[in-house]
Structures are given as C-alpha cells and as structure tokens.
Amino acid sequence: MKTLVVHCHPNPDSFNHALYRTALEALEPRHPVKAIDLYAEGFEPTLTREERIAYLDNPELIRERVKPHVEALLWAEHLVFVYPTWFHGPPSMLKGWLERVWLPGVAFLPAERKGQLARSGMRHIRRLTVVTTGGSPRWFVMLIGDPGRRLFTRALRALFAWRCKVTWLQLHDMNAVTARDRSHFIERVARKLQSI
Questions:
Q1: What values do phi and psi take at 85, rounded to 5?
Q2: Domain tally for the chain?
Q3: CATH number at residue 160
Q4: What are the tens digits of pLDDT across the range 141-180?
C-alpha cells in the first residue's frame, strides 16, 4: 500500500522523532513509502492573504507552491501522521499543512449550494494511522471529547474511502511517563505498523 508519512515536531532529538523513525523502519520493508518531515524541510504553514483570496477561485496558485506535497497526497493510499498533541490538537505547522495542501480540487470539491456537503477528492485513501503523544491524562482527554482524535478520525476521515481503516496510537500523560512507558509505546507502534 502506497504510504505517506507526515511528521511534525521541531526537535530531531525528541521522543516524537524517534516514533517517526520507528514508523519508517516498520513500514519501508513492506510498502512504498514517501516521508515528509515538515520542520526539517521548513514548510511554510501560513496561508497568505493572496492565497486566501485565491483559495476557491484559483486554488492552482497555492497548489503550485506546495506541488510536491499535493503530489504525495494524491499518490498515497495510506496516510500516517506522527506528531505531538499540543493544546488538544496538532501543532500549528501540521494544521497549516492541512490548510495549504488539502485544497479544493485536491482533497475536496466545494459545495455548490447552501446546505450541501463538499465532495471528497480523496477516496483513494484506504487507511489512516495516527501516532501521537499528549501531556494530559486519558480520562481528561475523554472528558473534553477527545478533540484531536475527532479532527482526524471523523472530520478528515469523512474524505477518505468509505471503508477506510483507522488506527489511533496515543501515549497519554507524556509529561510523567517513564523510560519504560516510552519503550513500550515505541514497541507497540512498531508492531502495529509491521502488521499493516
């Protein structure tokens, strides 16, 4: 399965970066893989005034500026996101990637009238995997409705193939976990991705 791995963390020495390397090592022997490390490449996440004005009427303006990312997204059948959960969602760099790459004519076709949903442009995505860490305890994340998970497994997932399989791997209480907890989580991520 053609797999796009998108990583978002500013520190290459972080635990999150170790998860990214683990994901690549687990997937590359069995699948064609393309990898995007947003911070390493210096991706520009900010939608400019010019781009916002052109967003619906001339999405080609933005598409040309992020062409390799659009091509990777259209190529993929399996999306893997590896990132830390900050303030109950993805880092701003990853959110900006979604805004600048998942464009009209790429990820979706805009609704033509009031009350109508946008039509998907990504039914080729058959699998979604998210590997994330977060500082809050699991019970609190559940209490507030798990907003980060909802973004990926409900809102974005709605654009994918009808039977798209979802895998969510999250290490909670990140600020208090032990080295053993981190080691077990890395092993869990490796096992899960090797089984895909």
A1: -90, 120
A2: 1
A3: 3.40.50.360
A4: 898 889 999 999 999 999 999 999 999 999 999 989 999 9
